[in-house]
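Notebook, bench 3.
Goal today: get a predicted structure for Putative transposase OrfB from Proteiniphilum saccharofermentans so we can plan the truncation constructs. The sequence was checked against the plasmid map this morning, with no discrepancies at the termini. Length recorded as 252 residues. Pasting the sequence as submitted so the record is complete.
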Amino acid sequence: MELSREIKDAYFDAKGRNGSPRLAKDLQASGVNVSRTTVARHMRNMGLRSKLSKKFRVTTDASHNYNVAPNLLNREFNQKEPMRACVSDITYICCKDGFLYLTCVIDLFDRKLIGWSISDNLTASGTVIPAIRMANRNRPFKEGMIFHSDRGIQYACKQTVNLLQYHRVEQSMSGKGNCWDNAVAESFFKSFKTELIYGTKLKTKEQMCLDVFEYIESWYNHKRRFSALGNLTIDEFWKQYNIKKQLIKNVA
């Protein structure tokens, strides 16, 4: 009975976003000795399910006459150091009073959303530019860092190209019509819509902006577990990284 309550509390604390593997990791991190299969069994008994995903849809428009950057990233999604490569993309959010557009910038080292913007228009100045500027404030760009995106006009336009060149960043773009070249950014949007939007009532733009902030800054960047990080949260992954870095420094 006690375990069922702890599983139920962890499930609702994550707002139904976690399935049994991540719930088990959360419980283990808080000192509860429980396996994934046990959590799954209790979830079935209580009728608890994680939110289901839906097919991702492309938002950016690649029909333009701007130059297209080569694919420098080449699907090297696992980076060993921070700020060696970032990926970015844009998605739409349907609201009661129209559409919003969310832009993300993700550091491939730890999958952290280091920059983002939410806008009611698809101009570069409303989407990509503020997201890039936030990313640079949170984690200053390194010279030669790869910034990867699709071929959308917001990324290919002079305003974005000039900003990235100013920071001495190498721009990279996916192959034509190849969503797998930007799989990490698309995976984020799939998780975002599954965990925050699908299965809920339409919200106003104002309420959605608040919910997006909470999802990114409270949940995704600090509490969500990632299979790419060994089912650690970003904070836990950074703690391990800094410990290893200090050990190497001490040995040297």
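The longest strand covers residues 85-95. The radius of gyration is 19 Å.
Flagging this for group meeting.
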